[in-house]
């Protein structure tokens, strides 16, 4: 009997996958996936989420990742505001394995969107207050969740709208810079090459803004300057190159070209593992920022 029930559930999941491939059935499939996700909300606070429920929600989220990643479904996915459904999982703080699995898989949905480097996606993520959520996870999450969250912020900054948003005011900039600096401190104690690479690339992109460039000439963590991470980066020549590029750039005059060059992380998003609101200081890019960021 138990096997029969399992077979039925597998059939339903497989049917949802097939329905996502059909434009006429895709809407209903997304509704069913959303119901699966919402059904676990009551177990988030207080944290009573069972591993089996978390697994079902993660399976639904994994399917949403495919919708977010595909160029033909990405825009309708945003218009339906489906990414909002993952925010409650990102707001959780429980260190239980089931919660961490949900957070990482939810970040994977946003990562699939951000990887497209589409200005429409960036504007949606900024309006939805994704940056504060990612910054909190970058400061408190596991290595994997920190890595995916940092990748999302990096991709947002790759877009000119995202960079202008972060550098629009000293408050926004220093909130991001403070989190990055704390991550560097933590990485001196527990090195992670892949996480450090994303942190370095965030710093490197920030140097494309003249105000941020000026601030980082005095605020870049000393451990990035003095060879502390040479051993950590020894087996990753690309990461070492990005660090040297950052140091060389900060040693020279400010860049006059505000536009990004080739993406320094061509390998794409880190593996997000198996399985709202608006307003605030990051609610949208300011039309006029400060003349400098001392």
TrEMBL record:
Give the highest taxon in the source lineage: Eukaryota
Q: Identify the InterPro entries for this entry.
A: ARM-like, ARM-type_fold, CNOT9
Lineage runs:
Eukaryota, Viridiplantae, Streptophyta, Embryophyta, Tracheophyta
Q: Where is this region: Disordered?
A: 252-294
Biased-composition ranges, Low complexity, are 284-294
Q: State the name under which the record lists this protein.
A: Cell differentiation protein rcd1
Family according to the record? Belongs to the CNOT9 family.
